[in-house]
Amino acid sequence: MRRRRKALVATALAVPLVLAGGTAAYAVHYQDRALPRTSVVGIDIGGMTRTEVADALRARVDAAVIEVTASGSTHDASLKDLGYAVDIDATVEQIFDLNSTWTSYARAPFNDDTVEIVTTHDSEALSAYVAKTLADDVRVAANASVARAEDQLSYVVTPAVTGQAADPRELAEVAAQVATTLTPGSATIELIESAPAVSTDAATRVADQANAMITREVVVTVGERNVSPPDAEQATWVSITDTGSADELGEPVVDEAKIAAWLSSAIDIAPRKGLRYVTSTGKLLRVATQARDGRKLTDPDALAKQVATTLASGAVSITAPVTTMPATWNERRVAPGAENLAYPAVEGEKWIDVNLSRHTMTAYVGGKAVFGPVATVDGARATPTDVGTFKVYVKRANMTMRGNNVDGTRYSTPNVPWSLFFNRGEALHGAYWRSEFGYSASHGCVNLPVKTAKWVYDWAPIGTVVKTHH
Fold first, then answer.
1. Looking at the structure, do residues 379 and 446 belong to the same domain, yes or no?
2. Is the same domain home to 227 and 319?
3. 7, pLDDT greater than 70
4. How far is CA 335 from CA 249, 298, 345, in A?
5. 24 falls in which pLDDT band (50, 70, 90)?
6. Mean pLDDT across the stretch 325-353?
7. What percentage of the chain's residues is helix, strand, coil (to nearest 5)?
8. CATH number of the domain bearing residue 277
């Protein structure tokens, strides 16, 4: 009995020693190897070194292709093509993190450990791949649009066009699965109908609303008179609001500022100041310009708002409230003696009378002749001197005069003395080449004897009135 008990005691003491020795050997063996019963993406990597695990993962990544069918053709796409990348180093570190605790060592022979691979994903890469693969097959949908017609009098619609777009959903699902399992897969990219964001019906509705505003009748009553905008004017009042997005249409709006501007231009009349000639004692001689009262819209902005609001839904018939602008008069007191002359000069005013019927020139101060009448040569029948009331605007003591003859040839006259220009190219000037005066023969100028021209040149300042008449 004692021998057996001793044997049992010896055996009991020996078992822990054997187990302890085995555990130590197990730990040393798996110190730099994946623990037993460890797998990643279906690969049993128990006992593999870091390098062996990394090589196995790379091989699976290289083999993990997706067979893509699009537009009748098939080709292979890698995970990288679709934006997926497997971080092998991070995955290996995750596997060997199990070796860091005795608990993992202890349970490894009895439990299965599946480690997930570490991946990153660029979502835009898959979209770019699909776009490139179907670049020749995708047809972008075109929105309907509304724009002014070429004549600017209405709005016209450019119809929408239905497109075709790639549906990447199946490829995205398969790519995500392949990236997780590193197992090859297959997917088809379908072309689906792509509807435009703005339909032809929606654009037609907006255009019809705008065109209705453009063509509705607008009548504004001013006193006993009605005014309406021209078609081209009313068309400028209506525009389509800008939403800032090509996928959204604006709404027709009426521009109140443009309406107010038209109302003012069509209705407002400035008062016209009259001019009447009176004697030095105030007796009316004649009315040169009749005075006229003016009118002005009382509140153009309020009226424009009323027109715009009404125009949005129907025809416009509105009475315009106006304010009368009383006219005023200017009176010109004619110098004694000038009442019946060609020009109603005031007292002390210098002016020159050119009588084209009598071919004479007379210098006046007020109603009194101070020089002349003297004979002249005025414009010939083919090149007559203009009739009117003018003012001397430039003086030249000596110059060369050039111009065209009636037959189109050119003329050039040098050393023309004492020129006073009063109407475009027409002037009073000396004519040394003439020995007789009192008829019509010039190119439009009023020719004078040289001494007479010198006297007029010295006497008449710039601004002196020249009255030519028959």
1. yes
2. yes
3. no
4. 73, 43, 6
5. low
6. 95
7. 30, 35, 35
8. 3.10.20
Q: Is residue 458 part of a domain?
A: yes
Q: How far apart are the first and last CA of the chain?
A: 173
* CATH number of residue 372's parent domain: 2.40.440.10
The answer to which of 25-29, 87-91, 165-169, 393-397 has the lowest mean pLDDT is: 25-29
**Assigned domain for 206 exists:** no
Q: Residue 107 has what pLDDT?
A: 75
Residues 105 and 132 in one domain: yes
Q: What is the pLDDT of residue 135?
A: 79
User: Is residue 98 very low, low, confident or very high in pLDDT (cuts 50, 70, 90)?
Assistant: confident
C-alpha distances in Å from residue 372, one per residue of 397, 418, 452 = 21, 17, 9
Both 361 and 269 in a single domain?
no
User: By the 8 A CB rule, do 437 and 414 touch?
Assistant: no
Task: Clarify whether residues 186 and 228 are in a common domain.
Answer: no
Question: Partners of 115 in the beta sheet?
Answer: 40
Please, which pLDDT band fits residue 53 given cuts at 50, 70 and 90? Answer: very high
Shared domain for 133 and 228, answered yes or no, is no
CA atoms within 13 A on the CB side of 322: 23
Domain count within the chain: 4
Q: Using the Cα atoms of residue 27, residue 29, residue 30 and residue 35 in order, give the sign of their dihedral.
A: negative
Is the omega angle on the peptide bond into residue 196 within 30 degrees of 0, that is, cis?
no
Q: Calculate helix-pair angle for 123-133, 169-181, nearest 10 degrees.
A: 130
368 in any annotated domain: yes
**E strand intervals along 294-387:** 294-297, 316-319, 322-325, 329-333, 350-355, 360-365, 368-375, 377-379
Residue from 315, 218, 312, 223 nearest 267 by CA: 223
Average pLDDT over residues 184-193: 91
With vertex at residue 296, the alpha carbon angle to CA 293 and CA 298, rounded to the nearest 5 degrees, is: 135
Domain that holds residue 170: 31-200
Mean pLDDT of 447-455: 98
Residue 184 included in any domain: yes
Q: Are residues 187 and 58 in the same domain?
A: yes
CA 442-444-449 angle, 5° bins: 55
Q: Indicate whether 53 and 146 sit together in one domain.
A: yes
Q: In terms of Cα–Cα distance, which of 191, 37, 46 is closest to 111?
A: 37
Ramachandran region of residue 351, left (φ > 0), alpha (ψ -120 to 50) or beta?
Answer: beta
Rg (CA), the chain: 53
What's the pLDDT at 22?
58
Mean predicted lDDT score pLDDT of the chain: 91
What is the percent of the chain with per-residue pLDDT over 90, rounded to a whole number? Answer: 79
Residue 72 has pLDDT above 50, yes or no: yes
Alpha-carbon distance of 349 to 360, in angstroms, equals 20
